Amino acid sequence: MQNSLILLDYETLRLLWWALMGFLLIGFAIMDGFDLGIAALLPVIGRSDSERRLMINLVGPVWEGNQVWLITAGGAIFAAWPMLYATSFSGLYLAMMLLLVVLILRPVGFKYRSKYEHTPWRNAWDAVLTSAGIVAPIVFGVAFANVILGLPFDVESSSMRALYHGSFWELFTPFALFCGVLSLLMHITHGATLLAWRVVDPVASRARRLGIVSAILVAILFALGGFWVAALDGHVITSTIDPNAASNPLNKTVALMEGAWLTNFSKWPWLWIGPILGIVGALATSLFLALRRPITAFITSATSIAGIISTVGFAIFPFILPSSANPSIGLTVWDSSSSQLTLWVMLIATAILMPIIISYTSYIYHIMRGKVSEEELNKTTNTY
Asked: CA angle 76-80-85, nearest 5°?
């Protein structure tokens, strides 16, 4: 009776939730990415208190709504991929705590900065906001890099409990730091495009010039990262795996092969759309900023972000968290999901709630449209 109520097979549901997880992560990177990028640019673009105030008030009214994407992604991972949630959130506990601290300090900085008109006070909170805007993107980049490299975890066969064997400092390998810098530049570029679009000069002009350079750096580093990944050992499933079987990461064998993370692009050539969008989108962002078309530049920057994140997912599929300690127990789409019924019920809930989230987010941005200027801020006391 239970199965008769489920209209999609287990394999399809798993694929849909893999795609939805990627969609939510991309949504967060695009929507909250410019918040973090603008925060990182505070001391570079904002050369006076009034200019930094313009930058903060551009994102201050919307950061809470943007961060909903991260909360939703975390909730989706918890419900749809419980083994992924348990392994990553416990193994990366210190990294997650670092990320949580900077994400908590950011709204505190928004709220408290304007409470006291004293230069040292405001400079201190500007430093907090800038630190959050730098640290969070780097942590995100390091996390994605370690997904590619694999985390040092094993699974206890009797209890199916994940056992993490690594340490906090082992996460920061040269490749991980490289990806952290790429992530930071990606966020800075996205923030610069919004500043060029939504803030008056001279802030907009400075952001435009910086964005032209940072977007080119994003394209270069992403391309170099591709060559680096090609030289890494990728994971390949060497046993038969049933996409409709119950989740159990112990029921497969995996081998390491150099360049294996590029195999999917040979098997399904259409996946090259990911890296193409990542590189072309970044270069187009630089071009449109140079042509003084910031709205188009913002769209191409978002496209580049989507392409870069999609490339990671495409490359490691069907893995969602490889293991460097025991490759055969790496978590995949086919063996680490929730039950078929859980995925089906969650899909129905998502089909109802996601349009609501997108609708109210669109409405908020429609209300908050227009350029931010000192004259506009002086018309209301409800500012940061």
From this structure: 75
CATH number at residue 334: 1.20.1630.10
- Does residue 164 lie in a domain region? yes
Prediction pTM value? 0.92
**Cβ partners under 8 Å of residue 89, min gap 6:** 96
The list of the chain residues with pLDDT below 70 reads 1-4, 377-384
pLDDT confidence of residue 56: 87
> Is residue 270 one of the residues assigned to a domain?
yes
DSSP 231: T
Instruction: Supply the range of the domain harboring residue 333.
Output: 13-371
Q: In the chain, how many domains are there?
A: 1
Distance of CA 247 to the CA centre of its chain: 26
164, 152 contact by CB (below 8 A):
yes
Burial of 285-297, coded b for 16+ CB within 10 Å and e otherwise, reads bbbbbeeeebebb
Report if residue 382 sits inside a domain: no
Residue entry with tokens 């409800």: 382
CB neighbourhood size of 86 (10 A): 17
Residue 147 neighbours by CB under 8 Å, 6+ apart: 312, 316, 320, 321, 322
What are the respective helix, strand and coil percentages of the chain, to the nearest 5? 70, 5, 20
